[in-house]
Specification:
Blueprint (H helix, E strand, L loop, with lengths): L1 E4 L2 E4 L12 E2 L22 H8 L5 E2 L10 H4 L5 E2 L3 E5 L6 E5 L1 H7 L17
Antiparallel strand pairs: 1-2, 3-4, 5-6, 6-7
Length: 127
């Protein structure tokens, strides 16, 4: 999960079972779980040219031999959204239904005005 708040970039990783838990290295500052005192602001700047690789999870590396981390493709390689006349049709991770959000939010984003808009399908996948 990538969250951008102004110049602050937060990235979350969730490993779903204890058998998947591995130590990871990343070029940015890790503040949770804490590995010691955190000085704020700190970390390596993330410039525009490296943001997409970062957001797609390509900057994470396992510190354990023979274990490779890769982005979860159902979340990183979604079918593009479509203009559906006043709303935007957004594919869901499960690939079954779609969800919609107001097309006006696209216009707002083009003017650097961003809003949180939660939408999800009702299917139980992934469990």
């Amino acid at each position: 999960m990538t969250v951008v708040l102004g110049q602050l970039v937060l990235y979350g990783v969730r490993l779903t079972t204890p058998s998947l838990k591995v130590r990871v290295s990343i070029r940015l500052l890790q503040f949770w779980p804490p590995e010691g005192p955190v000085t704020w602001p700190s970390g390596t700047p993330l410039h525009d040219d490296g943001f997409l690789d970062f957001a797609e999870g390509k900057d994470f590396r396992s510190t354990e031999q023979h274990i490779e981390l890769q982005p979860w493709q159902p979340a990183t390689e979604l079918t593009p959204s479509l203009d559906a006349g006043g709303v935007v049709e957004l594919p869901t991770i499960c690939g079954k239904p779609v969800v919609y959000y107001p097309a006006a939010l696209v216009g707002e984003a083009k003017h650097d005005r961003f809003y949180a808009f939660g939408a999800a399908c009702e299917c139980p996948w992934p469990t």
